[in-house]
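Reviewers of the previous submission asked for a worked example of the structure-prediction workflow described in the proposal, so we include one complete record here. The input consisted solely of the amino acid sequence. No template or homolog information was supplied to the procedure at any stage.
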Amino acid sequence: MDENATRPAAILWDMDGTLIDSEPYWMKAEITLCAEYDVSWSRDDAMAITGLPLERSGEALRDRGVNRPVSEIVGLLLDEVSARVRESIPWQEDARRLLDRAISAGIPCALVTMSYRRLAEAVTDREPAFGAVVAGDMVSNGKPHPEPYLKAAELLGVPIASCLAIEDSGPGVASAHAAGARTVGIQRLIPIQSLPGISRVASLDSLTDEAIAAIMAGAVVDELVDEADRQT
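From that input alone, the workflow returned the following structure tokens.
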């Protein structure tokens, strides 16, 4: 990143879907667990809980018919996904490139995830770039509440308004934006709704030094056009 560009004080990364391509791992773990109880679970079901606190996922599976306590459901899902991530981190290639640029420029980074700390540590144990981790079992209020992002900025010792947050889900975007971070929604598996003040990109490669400088200065960069926008 250009040292002369308007740079964020820190980059705050969502993990699942944004930084690593772990959503298929979660879906498989959910489907496998549901199958043990002869319960149907579709891709749409999985998408509906993406980005929410893990307790909400556990409640959804329990309510569908997985006859276990929510804490046990969450633990089983975490065991499966953590084991797969520890075998090989499934980096999103564009996110890996942006992370490398941030590392080279000396920009602090934090993970802000609703997965629990043991899954986050499957990444941070092998990638020391992250100066702070805020996981779902470390906050009282999960996304879309602003607490996770506010805590990440506090741990890094930087103003939240000077941070760039990168998210791939509605709850995550809402959390980062409510906290006061400059927020970018990356289009992965879930459509990112057009909202005032939210930048949207189809690839993190679009976050050039110039684009980041503009976003940090208050501009909105929007590469995605809603169907409604096309019709007007």
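The domain at 10-21+91-230 is CATH 3.40.50.1000 (Rossmann fold). We consider this example representative of the routine output the project will generate in years two and three.
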